[in-house]
Amino acid sequence: MFTNFPLFPQQASAQAGQVDAIYFFMVAVTAFFSILIAGLVVFFAIKYRRRHRDEVGYAIHGSLALELLWTVIPFVIVMVMFAWGAKVFFELYRPPVGAMEIYVVGKQWMWKVQHMDGQREINELHIPVGRPVKLIMGSEDVLHSYFIPDFRVKADVIPGRYNVLWFTATKPGTYKLFCAEYCGTKHSGMVGNIIAMEPEAFQAWLGGGAASESPVAQGEKLFSDLSCNTCHMADSQGRGPMLTNLFNKRVELQNGQTVVADEAYLRESIVNPQAKIVAGFQPIMPTFQGLVSEEQLLQLISYVKSLSTQGAAPAPSGTTAPQMPQASDRPVVEKK
Questions:
Q1: Per residue in 107-139, pLDDT tens?
Q2: 145 within 8 A of 179, measured Cβ to Cβ
Q3: What stretch of H or E contains 17?
Q4: Which of 276, 251, 277, 278 is nearest to 262 (CA)?
Q5: Cα distances (Å, whole numbers) of residue 196 to 54, 129, 151, 171, 232
């Protein structure tokens, strides 16, 4: 529909039809009432115009039925818009279980992408057609926004936290990617391409490039290099909480509150470990703010997620299962 008209890009995702339907419904309602009200204004202005200088208009005492009518009808229409919009919003907000996870980092002025098998891209994203794709996005500097017009999806990429965007491509092709939030002098150049491919072609593309280590493997190495395994062990003997089967579970804090161990919680626990102290543990973990990049944070989180039997996306073929954290051979020195 309107494929040659830039305000109406083609529908290339499972979500696009839902977004367009509610949009056109709202446009139709707005146009109908705009024409109706403008027409009535003109009609009544002509019908009840003053025909001579001494004419005095009749006193109008109002109509309860008419007032109820023009109150109830707009209320019903607005509630239809609200319910329909809420349904579409929650469907767009909640990615399905088992969606293919891809990490995206926004940086002035580029998009850096890493697939779960280690394949990296800059300003491009290769995806398979017909499979839900979940983007876990973070920013290294300022606020960005990941916008794919042909998919009708957009989400802010915010410094200091993670945001999620998901979609299912329905047609092979190359689609434009934009940053929809002003992010500096070269904001207009922060563009890219989404390449939707048939599943077989996508698998061939994955296997044809020089892939680096997967985020899980890189996170496991970083976990060891930062000596995280000296406190977070596979048993309860460590000075920090166990990470096995932690992801997406509820965690009890010292103040009696509970939180869900999602990506946002894991990130905050790395860069600001004193913000939420787990019940039964001392606040001895140092901050890694400024010591690890946003990409490394995503790798660490990917590794922690891989230690859980729930919540993590299926591991890509050809990768090995991560090893559970073991006690380090290095001596542990208590800080006084």
A1: 999 999 999 888 889 999 999 999 999 999 999
A2: yes
A3: helix 16-47
A4: 251
A5: 74, 6, 11, 7, 40
Note the pLDDT tens digit of each residue in 219-278. Answer: 888 888 888 888 888 777 778 888 888 888 898 988 888 999 888 888 888 888 888 889
Q: Are 122 and 111 in contact (CB under 8 A)?
A: yes
* CA separation, residue 330 to residues 44, 254, 284 (Å): 89, 29, 18
Is the CB of residue 161 less than 8 Å from the CB of residue 138? Answer: yes
Residue 57: Cβ within 10 Å count:
7
Q: Which domains does the chain have, with CATH numbers?
A: 100-208 (2.60.40.420), 215-306 (1.10.760.10)
pTM score: 0.74
Question: How many of the other CB atoms lie within 10 Å of CB of 258?
Answer: 10
Instruction: Give the Cβ contact number of residue 300 at 10 Å.
Output: 23
Q: Which residues on neighbouring strands pair with residue 179, listed in sequence order?
A: 146
Query: Rounded to an integer, what distance in angstroms lies between the CA atom of residue 39 and that of residue 241?
Result: 69
Between the CA of residue 216 and those of 64, 93, 316, what are the distances in Å?
A: 67, 25, 11
DSSP helix/strand/coil, 257 = coil
- CA atoms in the 13 A half-sphere facing the CB of 84: 15
Contacts for 101 with CB less than 8 Å, ≥ 6 apart: 116, 134, 136, 313
Encoded amino acid at 224, one letter: S
